[in-house]
Amino acid sequence: MPTIEQIERIFKVHPAPSSQPAKQAAVILPLVTIGGQTHVLFQTRAHTLKKQPGETCFPGGHVEPFDDTVAHAAIRECTEELGLAQTDITMIAPLPKVEAPHQQLVIHPYLANIRDVHQITIDPSEVADWFTIPLAYLLTNPPQIGHFNVTVEPAEDFPIEKIANQGGYIRRTYMLQEYFYTYKGRTVWGLTARILQQFLSHLQQEMTSSDPL
């Protein structure tokens, strides 16, 4: 059996790798200028897609093995879905990642600027349409907050009898919070709304700080 000294040497020379999610995705939160005003661009998923048809989302998709970086995946997906050239997209900064544990998925969002919305030509197999919401509207109209309950029930292979507090894990219910942004009949919610809310919250905080940039 290894001694503590041997274990120490192993972990100092070869640190344990961080666990990686089964799937990683990258999206772009696109800022555009329309009529001299800053807008946030969204797209509607094609109604023919198997997953989340008709839902509002940001341009993006899964990180593929051939992507050089996660940021490259975000740009690649955006160019494919909106028919843009890479030169039409200017990356600004990464945003906090968002996790979807039930999907074993981590989403890496990036803030970016699309230079000219007139260059957009959607891929109808992936995108039904696109629309924008003025940033000023989003900053002055807080989202509606809703909740839904998620009940966790042990599966047949879960050894519940080995746990001291068995009753606390049988049909355990968690309450999850969701944000809903609405504008002219459009609704933004789910992971897209979580990414948007984090962006808006940070922007508002920095804009109202005592020493704004």
TrEMBL record:
CDD domains: NUDIX_CoAse_Nudt7 (cd03426)
Domain Nudix hydrolase: 21-156
Keywords: Hydrolase, Magnesium, Manganese, Metal-binding
Cofactor(s) this protein requires: Mg(2+); Mn(2+)
PROSITE patterns recorded: NUDIX
Gene Ontology molecular-function annotations: coenzyme A diphosphatase activity; metal ion binding
InterPro entries found in the cross-reference section: CoAse, NUDIX_hydrolase-like_dom_sf, NUDIX_hydrolase_dom
Matching Gene3D superfamilies: Nucleoside Triphosphate Pyrophosphohydrolase
SUPFAM superfamilies: Nudix
Protein name: 8-oxo-dGTP pyrophosphatase MutT, NUDIX family
Organism: Shouchella lonarensis
